[in-house]
Amino acid sequence: MPEIQEIAGKYSALCELCNSPAEVIKRKKNLLVVSHVDADGLTAAAIVCTALERRGLEFQPKFFRQLDEKALSEVADFGADLVIFTDLGSGMVAQICHNGLQAVIADHHKPAPSEARPIAHINPHLVGADGATQLSGSGTSFLLARALAFSPGGNDDLAALALVGAVGDLQDMARGQLVGINRHILEIGRNAGAVSFSRDIKLFGRQTRPVFKMLEYSQDPYLPGLSGNEDACIAFLKEVGIRLGGERWRRWIDLSQEERASVVTAILRKGLRSGISNVKLERLIGEVYVLLKEQEGTELRDASEYSTLLNATARYGHADVGLRVCMGDRDKAFSEAQRLLGQHRQNLVNGLKLVSEGGITALKSIQYFDAGDAIMDTIVGIVAGMSFQMGDRSRPILAFARTAEGQLKVSARGTQDLVRSGLDLADALSRCAQAVGGVGGGHNIAAGATIPPQAKQEFLDLMDAAVGSQLSR
Ligand code: C5P
Ligand code: C5P
Ligand code: ZN
């Protein structure tokens, strides 16, 4: 009970922070919305842009892989009356203000300490809430959008997009369901008739994949004897008594409650027999989020599939496509996003294969792989997170990839258990990157950096020591 009250207090404090910037925004003519190229960044931008559109305010969206000095000078050159930063900005408050920008920041990354004061800085960390699990960039932007509504509740439908962003940032992974301030947003979305949620199997593709394909492609949890083996999945389902198809392959959503229950029970039994830990199997079941206004059987109906569709656009330089989907295009932009999704899935499969063939090197307190040019720097973090599920969970994983500019991109991923033991990847990456002339940041459980390529070994040594000391505290 006290925990619920505490979260309600933080939620109210954040809503409060949104009121005065909303009044300022309403009076501006030429607005720039700057956001991040992933599912959370896209949904964050779409939420704010929709809120501005509904008020008849003029705006332009702009997306960046990261907000560095170069990006900031581009933003400054744009000459907007006001810049709204969503899903980024908190790490660069000083530089934003130093550039003379009139700025409202709605972010959830760990804020860098700074005396500088933009028009408003809205961030869960500033009210004592965790930005890795309790509120995403899109969630923070949603609170701002609510304050911008013409009439109370006028933008509550946008809660659905906020949840897609939170799920895209894997904020539901720690407890198998969204928690903290995200839960308030879930309530708002449910009351607005925009979302529903229930406990269900947490495998990817419930809306769009034939059931046997959903099992075959399962990565998290990896199901020995099923994952990666189509024939085995078909045989398994037949044995459970599931009809695979009639006129078309049956998807998870086509199965009755009883059929779903019997598949889950059979997977659990099989998993236990093949020695998967209870902890891993627990991840099979959890809360899933359905977008009620979207058509059944499409990626957009399920928050997790929606977020992957968005990553397939923005992380490949097509943020405009993802943004149009988020803002309602179900025609050209949606088909284009679906086409990109096919390529994205293939890239992830290829990336995982590369890691399993090339192997992961373990140091004392961290493990890493270097993808060189073989995995794009914008998706190497996703591959790192996925490959991590298959192997050693006792050390955080670092992945390197070369950027188009010849720099070295680092993506780091941890586990909830490691975070509980003191791991803070944002802190370690930002310090170690800075020490070798790079920049980094993010969250305790997932962070990234860009460093000069020649600094790789030194950076690894520093990271190994930094993580070692975090975990020994
Ligand atoms: O920049 P942003 O905050 O939107 O990105 C968060 C990143 O952290 C996402 O790439 C997400 O996949 C990752 N993450 C993770 N594991 C978690 C939580 C977040 O890999 N448990
Ligand atoms: O790029 P990647 O998915 O590994 O990013 C993980 C997290 O670290 C994201 O939240 C991202 O915004 C953050 N990050 C950062 N500074 C960087 C690179 C990534 O804050 N230079
Ligand atoms: Zn985010």
Q: How would you describe what is shown here?
A:
Helices cover 46% and strands 14% of the residues. It is α/β, with parallel strands linked by helices and 473 residues long. It folds into 3 domains: 2-194, Alpha-Beta Complex (inorganic pyrophosphatase (n-terminal core)), CATH 3.90.1640; 205-287, no CATH class; 359-472, Diaminopimelate Epimerase, Chain A, domain 1 (Roll), CATH 3.10.310. The mean pLDDT is 95. Bound molecules: cytidine-5'-monophosphate (C5P) (2 copies) and zinc ion. Residues 40, 87, 108, 136-137, 169 line the site of zinc ion (ZN).
Labels describing this entry:
single chain, 473 residues, alpha/beta, inorganic pyrophosphatase (n-terminal core), Diaminopimelate Epimerase, Chain A, domain 1, six-stranded mixed beta sheet, five-stranded parallel beta sheet, 46% helix, binds cytidine-5'-monophosphate, binds zinc ion
Strand order of the largest sheet: 8-9-10-11-13-12
What is the quaternary state of this protein? Answer: single chain
- CATH level-1 class of the largest domain: Alpha Beta
CATH topology (fold) name of the largest domain? inorganic pyrophosphatase (n-terminal core)
Principal-axis shape equals globular
The CATH architecture of the largest domain can be named as Alpha-Beta Complex
SS field, number of helical segments: 18
What fraction, in percent, of the residue positions are helical?
40-55%
Number of strands: 13
Mean model confidence by pLDDT: 95
Strand content: 5-15%
Whole-angstrom Rg: 22 Å
Number of structurally distinct domains: 3
